[in-house]
């Protein structure tokens, strides 16, 4: 029989062998009186007896099974839902324990699939509309705050100066940090610019570099600016075309005013007719201020990069070897398959100078570079110009391979001009008749840039490829020792020439066969 609650009794029996329930730990006794429980109906199993606990709450242990546990029948197969309706997800599936099915809505059998709770589709894509969500309506607030999901429009960068730009080296203090509005620097121009500043100019830390350029050469100037800043130099860049319209009859005053105090200067512009005086003034003042000047006129990006392929050390070594090989009375014989056949005589009073060496204070250099230059004493024969011609008109013509110019010389002067293009012939004859000395060969260039393999139709590039190239007019008497002078110059370049120095082969088909 069942005793009153809390009466002492025998120890509860242990669960049976087949039992699936175990006794739980006892709860701590409570000091408050507990209400008496109602009598529990007798169990169907006579051995299922109540077991009192120390806290006054009886618990029951399941009766031991007698005999083997019967195997339950397999569950009936559930009907497969239609293919169009996905089966309901089973939360907790895959955890290793059985998960009960969700409760069946009223009015539906377990085998049927209930309709979705809502027929309105819900989109989880981010909204592009402006939503105003009240965040705070607490007392004392001025009103609900809003959050906009539409990003603000981009802020336009501050305009940069078109005419004048001064850059300080990295590490110098700045008042504030702003997003740079400068265009990206052309990576293909960085390496040639670095070679010019390192190998030709030898730019040092804290030196002042003045860059003067036009709009077409802005990318070249920016490449030099970046390289100079990496070497911690002070850079000043001027767009001369923004200061004065072209052609420049004279150099813009603001450009000349920036020259004093510059350690290195660079002049990078396209070739325009009528600007010789402006360029000449800039070079003269730059060298007078003891600056190391780099002159880049009428040079395209392709010509600039192509002329800097060869190591400057190899070009300098070849120029030095050529200078040691020529004598005061040396003779040059020049021939080509296009019809060139001339003989050049030197004189003891004439000097050679290198267009390719480390620039010292008060000196300047043309880039592209790589030639040994002098003023010849005599030139006799026919010279065929099939590569390129200088001047603004020549830069627009490009390559002359399809319309070569034939210049006939006698005693160093032009006797006749021939060309199948009448306009080209008229242009050359006009230059010859413009001023005194324009009919004489002012300069002879022995190209030594072994990195140039073929002409590009740009004179400043082609006159440095291996071969002999001529120029009428200006002879730089201060450097060559010539006894006459002229103002103005028109240069010519020939391709694939053979050159003999004092009867010995020197160049064959535009390649040096010795001294390299």
In short:
By secondary structure, the protein is an alpha+beta fold. Helix content is 19%, strand content 20%.
How does this structure look, described?
The chain has helices at residues 187-201, 218-230, 240-243, 253-257, 276-288, 301-307, 312-325, 391-397, 422-434, 459-462, 477-480; strands at residues 164-167, 208-213, 234-239, 264-269, 292-297, 331-336, 341-345, 353-355, 364-366, 371-374, 378-385, 388-389, 405-410, 413-419, 441-447, 467-473, 489-493, 497-501, 504-508, 511-512. Strand 2, helix 2 (218-230) and strand 3 (234-239) form a beta-alpha-beta unit. The protein has eleven helices and 20 strands. The chain has an eight-stranded antiparallel β-sheet, covered by helices on one side. The model is unreliable at 1-8, 10-36, 41-49, 88-99, 106-112, 119-162 and 172-180 (pLDDT under 50). Helix 1 (187-201) crosses helix 2. It is α+β, with helices and mostly antiparallel strands and 516 residues long.
Blueprint of the fold:
Blueprint: E1 164-167, H1 187-201, E2 208-213, H2 218-230, E3 234-239, H3 240-243, H4 253-257, E4 264-269, H5 276-288, E5 292-297, H6 301-307, H7 312-325, E6 331-336, E7 341-345, E8 353-355, E9 364-366, E10 371-374, E11 378-385, E12 388-389, H8 391-397, E13 405-410, E14 413-419, H9 422-434, E15 441-447, H10 459-462, E16 467-473, H11 477-480, E17 489-493, E18 497-501, E19 504-508, E20 511-512
Parallel strand pairs: 2-3, 2-4, 4-5, 5-9
Antiparallel strand pairs: 1-3, 6-7, 6-18, 7-11, 8-10, 10-15, 11-13, 12-17, 13-14, 15-16, 16-17, 18-19, 19-20
Helix pairs in contact: 1-2
């Amino acid at each position: 029989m069942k005793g009153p609650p809390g009466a002492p009794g025998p120890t509860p029996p242990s669960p049976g062998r087949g039992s699936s329930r175990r006794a739980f730990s006892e709860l701590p006794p409570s000091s408050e009186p507990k209400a008496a429980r109602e009598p529990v109906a007798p169990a169907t199993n006579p051995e299922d007896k109540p077991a009192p606990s120390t806290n006054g709450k009886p618990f029951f242990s399941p009766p031991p099974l007698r005999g083997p546990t019967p195997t339950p029948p397999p569950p009936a197969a559930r009907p497969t839902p239609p293919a169009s309706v996905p089966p309901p997800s089973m939360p907790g599936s895959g955890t290793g324990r059985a998960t009960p099915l969700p409760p069946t809505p009223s009015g539906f059998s377990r085998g049927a699939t209930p309709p979705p709770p809502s027929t309105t589709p819900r989109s989880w894509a981010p909204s592009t509309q402006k939503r105003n969500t009240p965040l705070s309506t607490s007392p004392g607030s001025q009103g609900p705050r809003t959050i906009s999901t539409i990003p603000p429009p981009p802020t336009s960068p501050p305009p940069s100066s078109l005419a004048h730009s001064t850059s300080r080296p990295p590490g110098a203090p700045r008042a504030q940090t702003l997003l740079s509005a400068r265009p990206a620097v052309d990576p293909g121009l960085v390496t040639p610019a670095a070679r010019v500043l390192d190998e030709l100019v030898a730019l040092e830390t804290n030196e002042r570099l003045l860059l003067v350029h036009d709009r077409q050469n802005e990318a070249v100037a920016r490449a030099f600016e970046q390289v100079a800043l990496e070497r911690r130099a002070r850079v000043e860049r001027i767009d001369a075309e923004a200061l004065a319209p072209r052609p420049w009859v004279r150099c813009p005053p603001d450009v000349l005013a920036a020259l004093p105090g510059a350690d290195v200067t660079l002049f990078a512009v396209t070739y325009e007719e009528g600007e010789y005086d402006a360029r000449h003034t800039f070079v003269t003042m730059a060298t007078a201020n003891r600056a190391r000047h780099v002159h880049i006129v009428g040079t395209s990006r392709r010509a600039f990069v192509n002329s800097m392929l060869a190591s400057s050390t190899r070009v300098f070594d070849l120029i030095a070897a050529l200078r040691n090989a020529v004598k005061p009375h040396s003779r040059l014989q020049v021939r080509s398959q296009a019809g060139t056949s001339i003989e050049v005589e030197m004189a003891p009073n004439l000097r050679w100078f290198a267009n390719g060496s480390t620039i010292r204070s008060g000196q300047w250099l043309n880039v592209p570079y790589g030639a040994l230059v002098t003023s010849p004493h005599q030139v006799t024969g026919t010279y065929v110009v099939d590569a390129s011609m200088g001047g603004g008109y020549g830069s627009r013509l490009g390559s002359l391979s399809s319309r070569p110019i034939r210049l006939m010389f006698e005693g160093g002067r032009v006797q006749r001009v021939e060309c199948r293009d009448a306009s080209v012939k008229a242009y050359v004859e006009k230059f010859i008749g413009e001023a005194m000395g324009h009919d004489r060969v002012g300069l002879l260039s022995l190209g030594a840039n072994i990195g140039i393999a073929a002409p590009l139709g740009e004179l400043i590039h082609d006159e440095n490829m291996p071969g002999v190239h001529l120029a009428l007019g200006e002879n730089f008497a201060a450097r060559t020792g010539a006894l006459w002078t002229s103002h103005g110059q028109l240069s010519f370049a020939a391709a694939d020439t053979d050159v003999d120095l004092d009867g010995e082969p020197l160049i064959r088909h535009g390649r040096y066969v010795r001294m390299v």
